[in-house]
Amino acid sequence: MIPRRAARDSRFVPFARRRWIGAAAVLIPASFVLAEDSPGQWIEQGHFRRAEVLLRAPLQKTPADPQMNFLMSRVDLAFRRLDDAVAHAEKAVAADGANASYHGQLAEALGAQTDDPDRGMFDKLSLAKRVRKEAEAALALDPKNESANSVLLTFYLEAPGIAGGSKDKAKELADRVTQLDPAQGYQLQMEIARKEQRMTDLEPLARKAFEAGSNSFRANLNFAGFNLSRTPPDPVAGEKHARAAMKLDAQRIGPYSLLASLFVTQKRWNELDPLLADAERAIPDNLGAHYQAARAILLAGDAGQMGRAESYLRKYLGQPPEGGQPSLAGAHWRLGLVLEKQGRKDEARAEVQTAVTLDPKLKAAQQDLKRLK
Q1: Could you count the other beta carbons within 10 Å of the beta carbon of residue 197?
Q2: Among 51, 237, 257, 315, which has the highest number of CB atoms less than 10 A from its own CB?
Q3: What is the pLDDT along the chain (373 residues), one digit of tens a residue?
Q4: Is the dihedral of CA 319, 75, 1, 283 positive or negative?
Q5: Helix, strand or coil for residue 301?
Q6: Other residues' Cβ atoms within 10 Å of the Cβ of residue 373
Q7: pTM of structure
């Protein structure tokens, strides 16, 4: 999950997307029938490039089609094409304003725009008003709409009081959703507990969310991510539920990414490469697990494995990243840091420079570039 920042200055970012380690949650409303190899099915599994290929032609033929615009907005959002995501969601709402999912998607796309560091405080507050309006419209139609509930909860937790933020309203929302949809509601309660730093409440809430999730792929993946990211981590439970999620759907990258990071922290090198090979065979167009393995090696500072991390990152850079996965700029930056650990300063500087060129807003890379000069 992307950490949220406090709403105390011009960096007010109430709607940064939250995610578990190694996997973005992809929400497709139950009202859509997900036929095999349909755009909706691909999006649900995190295969945004495949979905985009299937969506382009229908949208050119019927550019006002609400469902196609809704799905394309999901794809745009995954690739951080935020203006396009808003535009497609607006078309969906314009064509069918009685659909809760379309309003929820527009709320989420508008909310993501507040993450732009170049936007000023007043611009972000104006966006926040639109986000709240669309979220409330979605919930008036469907009180269980996950995008709208998530966005509105974040608004209440992060927006200043003068703009409508309220911890009490956040708790009321979470309690109401828990009555309607316990799995979703307990996840919202976890967000409030994190905000209030009630860390001892997280484990029982995470367990309730898992139990309410009926042992589904999503419930297992979320619980695996929680157990591996908690303090202290629970690697046994994390691995158990990551493998359970993989067994339920081996076509999603999340379980592979979680296990790759776990194998690095436990130095299970003889299991890591076979795992990554399995991931590549199952999902050849998403090498996110390779990136996560390299990142874990870098963070662990294991000098003897930097060559392995380098090979993983170079492989990741060999094809366009999937939606919801780290950018090429981020991969070049990490590769630069790995090369620096190997004493290859000139090569490291070149990689970090590439990262900054690709994404001038990547502040961490900018700082490292200054340090390497």
Answers
A1: 8
A2: 257
A3: 222 322 323 333 444 433 322 333 344 443 333 445 799 999 999 999 999 999 999 999 999 999 999 999 999 999 999 999 999 999 999 999 999 999 999 999 999 998 887 888 888 888 999 999 999 999 999 999 999 999 999 999 998 888 899 999 999 999 999 999 999 999 999 999 999 999 999 999 999 999 999 999 999 999 999 999 999 999 999 999 999 999 999 999 999 999 999 999 999 999 999 999 999 999 999 999 999 999 999 999 999 999 999 999 999 999 999 999 999 999 999 999 999 999 999 999 999 999 999 999 999 999 999 999 8
A4: negative
A5: coil
A6: 8
A7: 0.89
Residue of 299, 285, 370, 291 lying closest to 329 (CA atoms):
291
- Distance between CA atoms of 301 and 315, rounded to whole angstroms? 20
Spatial separation of the C-alpha atoms in residues 273 and 257, rounded to whole Å:
12
- The residue written with tokens 């497709």 in the block is 28
CA 106 to CA 301: how far, in whole Å? 41
Tokens of 305: 């494995």
Please, which residues have CB within 8 angstroms of residue 262's CB and are 6 or more apart in sequence? Answer: 228, 235, 238, 239, 242, 268
What's the rounded Cα separation, in Å, for the pair 84 and 77? 8
Among positive and negative, which fits the CA dihedral 216, 220, 226, 232? positive
Q: For residue 19, give the nearest of 233, 272, 266, 288 by alpha carbon.
A: 288
Helical residues (DSSP H) of the chain, grouped into ranges: 39-44, 48-61, 66-78, 82-95, 100-113, 121-141, 146-158, 167-180, 182-195, 202-212, 217-229, 235-248, 254-265, 269-282, 288-300, 306-316, 328-341, 345-358, 363-372
The CA-atom distances, in angstroms, between 314 and each of 283, 294, 373 are 18, 10, 23
